[in-house]
Amino acid sequence: MANHQSSLKRIRQANAKRLHNRYYAKTARNAVRKLRATQDKAEAQALYPSVCSMLDKLAKKNIIHKNKAGNLKSKLAKHVNRLA
User: Fold this and answer.
1) What is the dihedral of CA 5, 9, 14, 16, to 10 degrees?
2) 25-56 pLDDT, tens digit each
3) From CA 25, how far away is CA 2, in angstroms rounded?
4) Exposure pattern of 10-32 as b/e (b: 16+ CB <10 Å)?
5) Rounded to whole angstroms, how far apart are CA atoms 48 and 54?
């Protein structure tokens, strides 16, 4: 266990940041799942910009890697364009 006050504070900060990041990453994963499950083209086209925006924000804050965000956006765009 840490003995210094600064290291105890760092542990508290890291834990709070980890919970914050997990919440937003999980929210984004659920949004991606919802978009992938959508079979209606109009609904998918309405959802797509908000999901892309969410992924961009997470990549900007280093919660997910920027390449992962790009790959997800690309695959989602392909999914939305394939819908009839």
Assistant:
1) 150
2) 999 999 999 999 999 999 999 999 999 999 99
3) 29
4) eeeeeeeeeeeeeeeeeebeebb
5) 10
